[in-house]
Design a protein that fits this description.
The protein has about 850 residues and is an alpha/beta fold. The protein is built from 30 helices and 24 strands. Strand 1 and strand 2 form a beta hairpin.
Amino acid sequence: MQYIAHIRESDQEIQTVADHLLETQQLAESYGDKIGIRHITGLAGMLHDLGKYTEKFQDYIRLAVQNPDNPPKRGSVDHSTAGGKLLYNLFHIPPQGTFDQQDFMNKALLSEVVGNAIISHHAYLQDFLDPDLESKFLDRVRDRELEGFDHAVSLFYEQVMKKSEFYHYVNQAGAELAEYMQRDHSPDVELQMMFLSKFVFSALIDADRTNTRCFEENKSTDDKSTDESMNRQQLFQTYYNRLMERINALQSGEDADTPINLLRKQMSEQCEQFADKPSGIHTLSIPTGGGKTLASLRYALKHAFTFEKKHIIYVVPFTTIIEQNAREVREIIQDDGNLLEHHSNVVMNEIEDIDGERHELEDVVVNTQQKLKLAKDHWDSPLIFTTMVQFLNVFYADGSRNIRRLHNLSESVIIFDEVQKVPTHCISLFNQALNFLKTYASSSIVLCTATQPELDFVHNKLDIEPDAEMVHELDHVIESFQRVEIVDKATDVNMNTEKLADFVEQRLADESSILVILNTKAVVKNLYRRLKEDNSTAPIYHLSTSMCPAHRNDILEQVKKHLKHKEPVVCISTQLIEAGVDISFKCVIRSLAGLDSIAQAAGRCNRHGEDNKKQVYVIDHEEENLKSLKEIKIGKEISRKMFIDFKRDETCFGGNVLSAQAMEVYFQKYYTELAIDLNYFVPKLRKNMTELLSADRSENTYYRSYYDEKGRVLPLFLANSYKTAANHFQVIEDHTTAVIVPYGDGEKEGREIIADLNGQQSIDDLTRLLRRAQPFTINISHFEKEQLDRNKALVSFLDGKILALTDGAYHDCYGINLENDSPHSGFVL
């Protein structure tokens, strides 16, 4: 009998269970090789679909093919538990008589890590112990009866791997686990196993979906990782040569000998020299306007081909920066195909509830929904630009679409641009993820910002290298780059929108270009409208996160044209313009906020030192509602006190309120004030996320409660609550949904992309289309989604998995329009 794993949609060709398991094993091994656990990940690959060997599943798949219009209920046959159950039965139940205790414990732990990945590969890693003091893991691998299980195991030994070979393979996996645990001598086993579990799960999900995709496209899944690795090194060498051509051209220009440009050259050369150092966690504290992008890319490319890294990944706080930085890098490397811009997840979660459990849609017959799952990018590109939200989601968010990318973070150079923007409640989780990438995944981390946060000051410290800073004599560099004067107008008086509008008009009489940065979208919009009503002599522009990245980029380009031609211009923006946007105004007005935000705002004024010192005015806008913006509110009050101290004694903080010394003081005060938030407190559970994910048994209150209630110890080595933690994790506190917006009129604009979604797409075409959609995507809150629904402003595509706005729901000035009454050209979906 032929046992079926998948049936190709185009020609009804069959992929057997044995072929799928062996090919998935091979891919998973290549992914596990990155951190020395090829047999651990391979074990997950070879066993993940063991349950497809049952007659019940084979009847199910044949019935699904024979009755496409009325298929059996999705997930009605459990095929993902069998592999985990086999490992539990063989290696977690103590054998009779005498046995090697250490070997048993090692293999039992292995069965928990790999078994959890297997039983979860259509959902997310299960809880070993949940808030109800139940173990979903034990429910599946110990307690669930599986019809035809023994026969499935016999077929596995017959068609996939002989029993003796299988036991030898498990021994090799056990040896890898022992070696993995020795790499870090920390006693925190739960933390080690948490990241190992997530890596194995990532490798399995990607191997499974990649093999399924290759079968659907009739392509080979042979492991070509060695050839690809060699090609990556050649590619990075070529990019480096092209970068050096650009740098040499800049350094031989007519302004090359100015003090600022000479200093930029020195810092760039220091990054080149630093690239020869081994992998670790380092800092790059080049001041704003110091050539950070080129210098960090120089380090990354040189380090990548020297130490055979597979990826260079830029992680930025806002989508605004991706467009600009990616375009600049693309122009340098002269290669569009190997650079991925990943702004957000365009496709909604494909999760449905079945029998009280959550399953991703079954991957038996590759249909439209399956194409969407296979088309999602897994970050295999050599150069990747993404956001902090996406990075943290890879490690901690629910569902398999994010964690699939985790294994591709290994053997990488990862540059965190404007790292001070890490959300405070995610600090400990961020530090733990970076420590894992450094210690286990052979990745090099660069924390890149002019305002370095004190990430080694907090309880869950970042393991930064002793000599982490790439730039020499940093205090001298900061002093040399002083191009502005901070004018404190915040500690004595408040301003409302009317007074601020008048102040902007007054400054326009003396300065041709003004940037105003405020803390909330509401006051930005109000000030924009107020200045437009006054018919100011200068063009007025508005920027906020209600606009898609492509729209914001177009506005910035218009503003830059005015600046280039020295024409009057006023730009009013939220803080999105502070990080990584290469733009320079004659005057900046910044609403009082954290000291790092004020420093970043100052970096948009007289950026290249083209004038003598210019003014950055710090004001206090009384109409800003910061009730739900706790971090901004606390940062604002700490800055206010530091400004008062500086006003009393101008010698404090080294005589500069934006000095490295001042930043150190600010961040230590800031993290002290927010200490209870750093471990991601979950109010509903009254627990920190760090306890759910990696708490030692002695600190795990669920574990202690289990013993108190049941009178026995939990019969597992691990007690982490992975699924519960993922259900409660969100970088941005409001649940958001990605929508594609009808912005622009060109061939590659949002309207054209939305229209193309109506057509029939291959997996490759759909992948390209979703990548094109990134710059035309906005994340909307639950409240916004409900209002847009009521106003008939949302259209769904591909079985409801992709959402788009109607034409009237997007405004040419403000972006998203909840009322769906914006005037447009008449484009109709």
